[in-house]
Write a structure and sequence with these properties.
The chain is of the alpha/beta class and 607 residues long. The protein contains 20 helices and ten strands. It binds adenosine-5'-diphosphate.
Length: 607
């Protein structure tokens, strides 16, 4: 069927991905060959030693009872010969142990290298995706893929490949030696095995299905846990712990009930395997004993055959287990390959220019978010911001102001129309070039769980301490940073939780200023800061605007008064455009917004 063909293709690709580990894997295979060939003949040597002991016993009895006359030392009666054989065994075991050690090291190391490479590639593939992708994919699911799906693959390409090679070889060697010792007995024994094979294949399939379902349920629980923990402040504030616990417990219960079935299945199968193994041993003992009695088989040979039967059974059990795990790995790899192969829906341009003037021009822009295809957000927007000009964007919440900022950053492709930056279409520009000329400060700035210094230098890796401090000074952040014991090396905590709202904002402004951007995109904070903090943030912003092209989502009256132009955005259209005074004289949305201090109901800008 098509599905199994696809699975085979994925398995092939998985194996191909392991090719760089070829030297380690080959060395591992050589070690495997050495240890397994020796292990394969050890039961035979066991049998040989036993036969030697039995022979010795009869010989010595006959000498001492005078049946045979010997002169000089009696070599077979001494322990010497036995000791020699046992010493050989000890030597062989030593070789086996050393070879096994290297085999294990090679395969495990190859696995670690393999999974590290896959994880790096996968992470790169995730980061490459367009913004719309992240609107529809849950963070928890993506990180889960990176962590757990890759781990499943790792065990498949290392442990399982090694187990498969080891026990297949053991199976072949055992059967070969057994046939060599006694073909008829071996044939009788092997007649039982088709039965086990059928049971094993059925079991492998069933287990694979159950395991997959189990993983899915577990992933669900993980997403719930991740969301709760990363939003613990909101959870606690709304005393929602019990509810989330209940929901997590329900998810876990679901995976547990599958886990229960899996336990019974695994237990049941191992029971069946044991019954078959012991019966096979009894069969060998019964028929072999009969052959020994009729002197068609030595007791040492019988012992060797019993040991081989045990090896055979064990190899079989391992191989049947590996089948299930391979299938699980293929399942996991399908999801990983999908992600790795995904071509981002936005293709980045490559255009670079020596200079950047910082003019913004929207020409008849239509836009709809890909995750919400039947709700157009911008419906023919036209405006321009000339170099060095400060333009304010106002309008009721949900009107599309943040969307305009997203589009200037080329986070999304337009449905229709064009956005020109310095006269060039954004979709033709090399994003790593033009985004460096755009500074952005969000309403609720996001910081990373590292030092203040690294947060400021986020967009410019090789920034010097002087540059960082200069940016912090401009952003009114230097003083509070120096007041910390570890000043610029202070850790801000996850998403900056250890800083106050105003401090976070000033660090974010410093981060934007460090790039010395030609264009500044600002979203003024609506959340209330204390008066002093508010003043420091505003002073920093006002200073940052000087000499730059600025588009600001304004929530303050002072900002719109200073703007050379105010754009009023409502339901996807620019409904009014002009200076503050011009728009006030016109009895429209702007006047209403001003009466409500620009953001309705939030009481801002009254100072
Ligand atoms: P504003 O900034 O003026 O408050 P936005 O630009 O944030 O408005 O939102 C405009 C519209 O786009 C809203 O209806 C909002 O629900 C929708 N929207 C915003 N971001 C997304 C997104 N990532 N995916 C889908 N729809 C979005």
């Amino acid at each position: 069927s098509g599905e199994s063909k696809k699975k085979k293709a994925d398995l092939k690709r998985l194996i191909k991905l392991a090719i760089p580990e070829y030297p380690l894997i080959s060395l591992g295979l050589v070690m495997l060959l050495i240890s397994n060939s020796i292990q394969g003949i050890i039961p035979y040597i066991f049998g040989y030693v036993i036969d030697l002991a039995v022979k010795n016993q009869t010989l010595c009895q006959e000498i001492s009872s005078g049946v045979i006359n010997v002169t000089g030392p009696v070599p077979h009666c001494s322990l010497w010969l036995m000791s020699r054989e046992v010493l050989v065994l000890v030597g062989l075991f030593l070789v086996v142990s050393v070879a096994s050690m290297f085999r294990a090291i090679c395969f495990t190391l190859a696995g670690e290298r393999f999974v590290a490479r896959i994880r790096k590639n996968l992470f790169a593939a995730i980061l490459r995706q367009e913004m719309g992708f992240f609107d529809t994919n849950r963070t928890g699911e993506l990180t889960n893929r990176l962590a757990s799906d890759t781990a499943v693959i790792q065990s498949a390409v290392t442990e399982n490949v090694s187990i498969l090679a080891r026990y297949s070889l053991q199976l072949i060697i055992s059967i070969g030696v057994m046939f060599w010792i006694n073909a008829r007995l071996t044939a009788v024994l092997l007649s039982v095995f088709p039965l086990i094979s059928i049971a094993a294949v059925y079991y492998g399939r069933k287990l694979k299905d159950l395991r997959k379902k189990y993983q899915d349920k577990l992933a669900l629980a993980s997403s719930t846990a991740e969301e709760s923990i990363s939003n613990i402040r909101t959870v606690r504030a709304f005393t929602n712990e019990m509810k989330l616990m209940t929901s997590y417990n329900e998810d876990i219960e679901r995976s547990y009930s599958l886990g229960k079935v899996i336990s019974f299945l695994i237990g049941g199968f191992s029971g069946v395997v044991f019954i078959l193994i012991y019966n096979a041993l009894c069969l060998i003992l019964w028929y072999g004993g009969y052959l020994v009695y009729h002197q068609k088989l030595s007791s040492g040979e019988l012992t060797a055959l019993m040991l081989y039967t045990l090896t055979l059974a064990m190899s079989f059990a391992f191989i049947s287990n590996v089948y299930g795990e391979f299938m699980q790995a293929v399942g996991a790899s399908i999801r990983i390959f999908e992600l790795m192969d995904r071509i981002p829906l936005i293709q980045d341009g490559a255009l670079v220019r020596p200079s950047f003037e910082g003019e913004i021009l929207f020409k008849n822009v239509y836009f709809t978010y890909p995750s919400r295809p039947d709700e157009p957000v911008l419906k023919g927007v036209n405006f321009s911001v000339r170099p060095g000009e400060m333009v304010a964007l106002v309008g009721p919440s949900g009107g599309g102001k943040s969307t305009i900022v997203n589009l200037i950053e080329h986070f999304y492709d337009l449905t229709d129309g064009n956005i020109l930056i310095s006269g060039l279409n954004v979709k033709d520009l090399d994003p790593s070039w033009y985004r460096r000329h755009i500074g952005i400060v969000n309403q609720e700035p996001v910081l990373f769980a590292t030092t203040i210094k690294d947060n400021i230098a986020f967009g410019k890796e090789n920034a010097t301490q002087e540059e960082i401090e200069a940016a912090a000074l401009q952003a009114n952040a230097h003083d509070f940073i120096m007041s910390f014991e570890e000043n610029y090396k202070t850790l801000v905590g996850e998403r900056g939780v250890r800083l106050s709202g105003g401090q976070k904002q000033r660090v974010a402004i410093a981060r934007a200023l460090l790039l010395n951007p030609k264009i500044l995109l600002l979203d003024e904070a609506t959340s209330a800061l204390d008066a002093e903090s508010e003043f420091l943030v505003q002073e920093a912003i006002d200073r940052a605007m000087i000499g730059r092209t600025v588009l600001v989502i304004a929530h303050r009256l002072s900002t719109v008064r200073n703007a050379s132009k105010v754009l009023v955005l409502n339901e996807g259209f620019i409904v009014e455009e002009g200076t503050h005074d011009e728009l006030l004289s016109f009895d429209g949305i702007y006047k209403k917004l001003v009466l409500h201090q620009l953001t309705a109901g939030e009481g801002e800008g009254q100072r």
